[in-house]
Each structure stands twice: as structure tokens, then as C-alpha cells.
Amino acid sequence: MLYEITVPQFIKMLHNLDACLDKAKAFSEAKKCDPEVLLGSRLAPDQFALMRQLQIACDTAKLCAARLTGKEAQAPVHEDNEKTLADAKARIGKVIAYLKTFSATDFAGAESRRISQARWEGKHLSGSEYTLQHALPNFYFHLTTAYAILRHNGVELGKKDYLGPMPFQS
Amino acid sequence: MLYEITVPQFIKMLHNLDACLDKAKAFSEAKKCDPEVLLGSRLAPDQFALMRQLQIACDTAKLCAARLTGKEAQAPVHEDNEKTLADAKARIGKVIAYLKTFSATDFAGAESRRISQARWEGKHLSGSEYTLQHALPNFYFHLTTAYAILRHNGVELGKKDYLGPMPFQS
Q1: How far apart are the CA of A138 and the nearest CA of chain B, in angstroms?
Q2: Spatial separation of the C-alpha atoms in residues A125 and A108, rounded to whole Å
Q3: Phi, psi values for residue A77, rounded to 5°
Q4: What is the pLDDT at residue A121?
Q5: Paired residues of B143 in beta bridges
Q6: What integer best gives the mean pLDDT of chain A?
Q7: Cα(A168)–Cα(B2) distance, rounded to whole angstroms?
Q8: Are A167 and B125 within 8 A, CB to CB?
């Protein structure tokens, strides 16, 4: 169950984010400004800028899949050294490619797997608790904050850019 | 399955939002400003202001539970006529109380239930598609945007205010 509510939606939403960055690029060109200005923008002085929001969204998805499947030690390490819009898009692409290596069978037993990280000081959550109360709300938090930073700067984005296409049936 | 990934987390996150509004109230008092200034704030001229973000977050949670259980016709109607911070908190409280009326058994068969709404012009999603690709990302979108509007105005909020407490075990 945890595969279905994480990996496919992570991939979809990261594609949507990538498309938002294409709109940010077009906006920068029209305004004759450096797109890295947008990547350095934030909504409050003590908030992470757009680039960091993207990096955390990527890491949240990557580490959620890795942790739930017991593969954290093998997860690719990303150095957070991206500078340009092209770098940001490449990072998103690498995480999408990594997520595509997982299948539902990798997630067998994930619900009850003990999930921890260094900052939790030895404490843990179950895989279900971690997914529902930590990974998913965090993933959407950083995606929405990225979107909000772009909107605040005037990039023309709408809810459809965030949600992406729906698999409607007639 | 759809109950577990929606209702308990909706309730938790709406409680977190309510606590963020308490911090907004304290901030307004310290700054000697009207808290309704915050409720009318937005991050872009063509974005919904904070009050509308709260209302949509509430409706997204309410209607998700109602639609997945075939109870949309009986769902309470909220008029979106809130003006004050107390009104906003009362709205959140009403939706939390409504969500608490549901149990997992109400969600039997929800995965394959046909979900539609007027703006979809006769098209539909399955209950699973609607939950994962529409309701959850929308819910977190409006919660995070509400948080971002408060952060942008200087209210001291951190990620823990958004996520709420974790059920850590030692």
C-alpha cells in the first residue's frame, strides 16, 4: 500500500515541478533577469530559498522510498551543490530516475518497518507513521513553498501546474 | 485503506493549522495590528488571501471524506462567510468535528467509487485517484500556502508547527 501512495505520486509531482521551472525560465527570459535570482528568492528572511526547497523536496521523495524499502545505504547521494536552473532540473531528473527503479514488491513489510534518522536521536516511527505524518506532508510542503516563491515573484502558475493532469474518465 | 491516509491526518493537520492561527493572534496583539489584516493577506495579487486558503483546506478535507463514503449530499454546508480569526477557528473546529464522525468501515469500497464534481463536466476519477492525485495534494497545498502567508508577514512559525507532534517510539 505504501508504494501506491508515495512513488507514483512523487514522480508525477516532480514532473510538475520541473514544468514549473520551465515556466520560471521563460519568465526570466521575458523579464531579462537571471533565473538564479528566482532560485535565491524566499518569502521570509529566515526561510530557505527556492533552490533549497527543491533540494529538500527531492530528498524527501528519495529518502522516503529508500527508507521504506530498507535501501537507505544504497541511495544516491546528492551534494546540494546545484547553482543554475539547469542544475535544479537535472537534480529533479535524477530523483525521478531513482524513484522509477522501485516497484510495489520492494515495499513488502514497509508499513511496520522501523524508520529513523540521525536527528531523531534514536527514536523511530513505523513506516506508515513516517509516510503519512512526515514524508508526505513534508514533500507537499516544499513543493508548495517552491510554487509560492515563484508565484510571489510573478511567474504565471496556476493550480493545474501544481497538480498536473488528472486521469479523468468519461 | 483510504480512511487511514485521509481522515486521521486531516484532523491532525487542521489542529496544527488552528494552533498556527493562535500564533497569528499573539503576533497581531504584539504588533498592535488587526488579525484580520493577516486573514486578508496574500502572496500575489491574483492569489486567494489567507481566509480563503483556510476555507478551501477545510472544504477539501470535508468533501474528501464525504465523497469517498457516498455522503456528499449529507455533508454540512459552510457559507464561506467567516470574517474574524475566531470565525476561522470555529470553521476549522466544525470540520474537525465532522471528520470525527467517520470510521474506517464507512470507507468500504471507496477505492473504486466514482468521484466527480460539477466542474469536471461529467468526468470522474476513482476514489483512489481522487484521493492521491487531487484531495491530498490540494489539502497540503492550501495548508502550506496559509503557513507561507503567515511566515511572509513575520509570524514566527517553524516546520514543527506545520507537521505537529510525531508519535515517536524509543
Answers
A1: 8
A2: 17
A3: -95, 130
A4: 92
A5: none
A6: 97
A7: 19
A8: yes
Q: Is B13 an 8 Å CB contact of chain A?
A: yes
Question: What is the distance between the alpha carbons of residues A93 and A95, in angstroms, rounded to a whole number?
Answer: 5
Distance CA B98, CA B106 (A): 13
Residues A20 and A149: their CA atoms lie apart, in Å, by: 11
Place of cell 485521509: B6
Structure confidence at residue B1 as a pLDDT band (50, 70, 90) = confident
DSSP line for B97-149: HHHTT--GGGGTTGGG-EE--GGGTT-BEEHHHIIIIIIHHHHHHHHHHHHHH
CA–CA gap between residue A33 and residue A54 (Å, rounded): 20
Q: Are A168 and B123 inside 8 Å of each other by CB?
A: yes
Does B122 contact A170 at a Cβ distance shorter than 8 Å?
yes
- State the Cα angle at A101 between A99 and A106, rounded to 5°: 95
B147, three cell numbers: 503557513
CB A5 within 8 A of CB A136: yes
For A114-141, b/e burial (b = at least 16 CB within 10 A) is ebbeeeeeeebbbbbbbbbbbbbbbbbb
* pLDDT score of A1: 87
- The pTM (predicted TM-score) of the whole model is 0.98
Evaluate whether A18 touches A45 at the Cβ level (below 8 Å). Answer: no
Per-residue burial over A9-28, b if 16 or more Cβ lie within 10 Å, else e, is bbbbbbebbbebbeebbebb
Residue B17 forms contact with A (CB below 8 Å): no
Grid cell locating B55: 476555507
Task: Write out the three cell numbers for A141.
Answer: 510542503
DSSP per-residue codes, A91-121: HHHHHHHHHTT--GGGGTTGGG-EE--GGGT
Inter-chain touch B162–A137, beta carbons under 8 Å: yes
Q: How far apart are CA A40 and CA A49, in angstroms?
A: 5
